[in-house]
Amino acid sequence: MLGTGPDKKVSIYIGEDHSYHGHAAYLAIVEYLFRRGVTMATAIRGIAGFGADHHLHTIVIERLTENLPIKVQFLESEEKLADLLPELCRMVGTGLIEIENTVVDKPRRPADRRRAEPDQPLRSSTTAQFLRICINDRDMWRGRPLYQALVECLRANGVAGVTVFQG
Question: Where do the domains of the chain lie, and which CATH numbers do they carry?
Answer without folding.
Answer: 5-104 (3.30.70.120), 125-167 (no CATH)
